[in-house]
């Protein structure tokens, strides 16, 4: 806890105190019977089991199927029971994904569940009667589910924002796309669970376990597919870096400069992610060019130039054959086009060149100027900026050069270069 950002710690204590007050207040207010204790036990076990099977989100955080269980308890029981169940779900988590997880994470999760369920429960109590399934009440339950989801996502986004020093709003927007399918799949399941529990008791719930696990499994497959995609990208870049000594670290640095430009023109996070892959992969076609030519020192023959100039098209062909990567293929194809139309392979010009390709061209040129080659030392940041400005409008998009000059300073460039060096050293 000591090493965590100050703002996160404050937020952590705030959520924990609010949750403790909700939990204690509602538990003391309740009239506890054996049946109520048993409900906490059954649903607590269920919540703990669902929380123990999380699915990671691509940009931090995770989702679980426990949303269905939580919705079920908020529909069926008063806050004393539902807050105890979600607190158990947050605190008693098992499995390999959570092994070694610090205690504060569990406390935070349990607390944010309690706060979210507290608000959802207030909505149900305020406008409806708990436990009945009249059509009007189903709408209220769905409203409570939305309140739960929004509160939960907002608290998690603020916490992740403070921890990762990023904008909580951006994290919120990114994660909502992953949470909505989860919500659509799990909210009806939560309603169904409540209905079955009411009519058939705990044994009816057993019948629902299978669809619950299937729903988790399909979501996990979706995330795994994305993960595999990223691993493929990494393998392709590693194959290239092993072959072309000059390219070592180049792809990664171009990726970082490209992101700096993209952020400078306020590109959406989604597009930036797409650009990052394209930038890292831009020279992947060099895999199809002979090593002797790639590493040749001194002048190249015309035929050798021809071979090098084929790398954007080879790159596109490689990427096109991998599902998901088609659009990146277009960007890779055009990364050597020039703004004045004198580039290759298609000689297109100006804004006909995909924006991402123009961004990569600026990043690529800067890195080529500042990198050391066997026959010359790389130039300084200031010299490189001067050269970029010289070719702005002819070789490169002038607006993007301007953005680059503002976004990348001497300091940030040296950070990127040094980070690249460490990476290369550790990969040998
Ligand atoms: Fe290239």
Please render the helix and strand layout as text.
Blueprint: H1 6-29, H2 34-51, E1 55-56, E2 62-63, H3 66-76, H4 79-91, H5 103-127, H6 135-164, H7 168-243, H8 250-264, H9 269-281, H10 291-294, H11 302-309, H12 311-320, H13 326-333, H14 355-370, H15 381-391, H16 398-407, H17 410-427
Antiparallel strand pairs: 1-2
The chain binds fe (ii) ion (FE2).
Can you put this structure into words, describing what you see?
The protein is mainly alpha-helical and 428 residues long. The protein folds into two domains: 6-225, Arp2/3 complex 21 kDa subunit ARPC3 (Orthogonal Bundle), CATH 1.10.1760.20; 244-427, Hypothetical protein af1432 (Orthogonal Bundle). The protein has 17 helices and two strands. It has helices at residues 6-29, 34-51, 66-76, 79-91, 103-127, 135-164, 168-243, 250-264, 269-281, 291-294, 302-309, 311-320, 326-333, 355-370, 381-391, 398-407, 410-427; strands at 55-56, 62-63. It has a two-stranded antiparallel ribbon. The longest helix has 76 residues, at 168-243. The radius of gyration is 27 Å and the shape is elongated. The model is unreliable at 420-428 (pLDDT under 50). Fe (ii) ion is lined by residues 282-283, 311, 335-336. Fe (ii) ion binds at residues 282-283, 311, 335-336.
Offer a few descriptive terms:
single chain; 428 residues; mainly alpha; Arp2/3 complex 21 kDa subunit ARPC3; Hypothetical protein af1432; 2 domains; 72% helix; elongated; binds fe (ii) ion
